[in-house]
Sequence to fold (354 residues):
Amino acid sequence: MNNKALIIGSSGVVGSALAERLLAEGWQVAGVSRGRTPTVAGVTQISADLTSPGLAAALAGVEPSHVFITAWSRQASEEENIRVNGGMVENVLAAVGPGGSVRHAALVTGLKHYLGPFEAYGQGAVPVTPFREEQGRQDVANFYYAQEDRLFEAAARHGFGWSVHRPHTIIGYAVGNAMNMGQTLAVYASLCKHTGAPFVFPGSAAQWSGLTDMTDARLLARHLQWAATHDAGHDEDFNVVNGDVFRWQWMWPRLADYFGIEAAPLPAQTSPLESRMADAPRLWSEIAQKHGLVQADVGKLASWWHTDADLGRPMEVITDMTKSRKAGFLDYQSTPDAFFDLFERLKREKLIPA
Fold:
């Protein structure tokens, strides 16, 4: 059967990697984004507002066999996150579900399923790590749960399979993405090299010394494709991480070595990036001019707040992949290699200095 993908959030860090993967595998790919950033060549691009009543008209005639929902919209409160992001999932599936073409719909959420949302980290009874799918939901408001519920309802209504994918912090390539630690750290290291400022870890002591893991967007793309095309992946929720573990006190000097700078010792007090980057727009403009970079707006490359949130967690965060392994997904990705592959691509694309 022909595989026709509809990727919601096709220009984002997950959507871009998924589009590249599916196109290479011979899929037809249509993508929905707000049209603010470029998408992968070969994707049939649809510019649409996922909250708009006009979405059904924008998606008329697409007839996807598989839907991949990889987008979210950050709101001022979790109540608004629930309303808007749950509504987006409902709107997409209401637009394409009745046509009968959809065989599977996949939703990408994340480990805040277990941790609680940004505004309520650790306020519920956070499960013991490693996080496992069987641990279920927290007793806190969380827009991920609203998204899941809308997915389950639509799948039951229209008769297609579903999967939910929970990555940890994602390493991947995307310009203008709001949640991108890999690019943020590359920009931060480049700023430190330019100014001679120390390369200070911006997170908590718990993150510095505790075990953790991450998710390469390319591995997540392979996981999404696998779940959408194998019976073992249907109607299941899965954690998705690279398969290795590390401590930031080990990783941080390796990132510094890549950029030819020295890693500073862990400071006595947490030193978030957002509070230290007031001068970054001016400095990045200087760097872009000096090195002939194609993006002089540091805000299109770095998301200080998101990196601060992930690295500032006061608890260890590590993920179990047993469920995927037992179901047949055995892929693996070295996390240091994921960082270095991304940094090399950013150099090739003239987004950071070579």
About this structure: DSSP finds 13 helices and eleven strands in the chain. The chain has two domains: 4-167, 175-213+245-317+333-349.
